[in-house]
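HUMAN:
Just now I want nothing more than another pair of eyes on a protein record. I would be glad if you read both lines and explained how they fit together. I have put the entry right below:
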Amino acid sequence: MEKRSSMTLLQRLQTAVIHHPHLDGRRIHYSTSGKNVKIEGKAYTFYEKQMAQELLRCFEGIGKIENNVIVCS
């Protein structure tokens, strides 16, 4: 079995955030409940908040997205 396919959705999200050039993985956190994803934390800009949500588009099987990131400039 391929390692990537054995990772949970949350593990894949965390890995993607760490490697994303426009997100600070220390300030933005994802949690999952089934297929639903909640995003929380702080962003420096509205763009960063949106990138935290747009990152989810590359993952199959995600249902509802709740973006609770606060923009603190």
